[in-house]
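Ticket #4471: structure output looks truncated?

Reporter: J.K.
Steps to reproduce: submitted the chain below (379 residues) through the standard prediction queue, then opened the result file.
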Amino acid sequence: MLKPRINALILGAGNFGRHYARILSQINRDALPGVPLIDKLIITRTRIERSREIADLIRNQKACAVNDVVAAKLSSPRDLMTLMEKHQPKFIAIVARDNQKGDSVHALYTAHALQSGAVLCEKPFSNAFGDGSSLKSFDELFGHENKGLFGLELPFAVVMRQLMQNEKFRNLYRNMRNLEFFWETQVTLENYIIDDLALHPWSLIPRGYPIKTVEVKSEGNTADVKLVIENPYTGQDVSCKLTLREGGNFRGMMIDDDVIGIKSEQASIKLIRLYAKLEEAVLSGAEALEGEILSEIDNPLKQNIVAALKKEPIVNLKQTYESQVFLERLHGYVPLNPLNAYDPTNSFGDYPQQLRPGSCVFPEIFLSGVGGNPAEYAR
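Returned output as attached by the reporter:
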């Protein structure tokens, strides 16, 4: 049986969007079950000259396996609608960042892109402002007929999914009393440090561990976040700390006394139980990580793309909403707590009206990370 062929559109092929372009241009070689063949790949930038440069680069790579790579200009929703009408893409990757709107342009483009088919959106879904306003974007999406085709590209959601298949990690999370993350970047974030970095450690907090309180101190290129989360297995509070910082390259976590370094090598991510203390590892940097390799995750971005192409997103719309509520809280937003009002088996269409975005009422169990619920871990 012949595989269907589709067109794929990348909104914003900048530094990170080029990784999307490379993976999509080569994915036909893998002949993955359930993944359609890419016929035409459309690459966009705000300047057509830059789009053409990148399109030529992708087209001329030996591993490129699509029939055509097309360059186009994108600077507004009107441009997007024109491209959708012309090329009829069935997969759209939203990787753009607008000079004025920042990452909030992701939410703006999503509502239009879902009309075509599967959507994979770079994180965050929107910049958060601390007043809950970014959550209003979900009003329309909750009722969209293609809401199940939306995915958020969170690399550490892929990591967490694999970790939860490891009994050692499940036991660490079940019994934990303290959880600490240290997350650095060498990229200049221009005052977006929380929106750009916080969802990485958030993805490594198991879903079903409610966040009870939030305290944030942010100054310049550093943000210190203190959370109190509830361990549903022990019923005890867990102290959770996130240190987000520009200027370094260490990323890691500590679950009670276990220090785990996170190392990126080409397209893979390694989790390493370190011999050093967390403070020593931070000072040494990512290059000096030494210890026992606990897990290795191959190319999380590609896994997210493949899942979206199969119409089975790893981070769905529900979890995207959770991530946005979390960011809003870090910026000072205080939601109400309708105790025990959340039914984790509900789909969006079944949500009680009072829990819909825009009502400013959110179940606390929404506010923990990606990775499955405690009942799943217990099996």
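Triage note (M.O.): checked the attachment and the full token line is present. Residues 338-379 have pLDDT under 50 and may be disordered.
Status: closed, working as intended.
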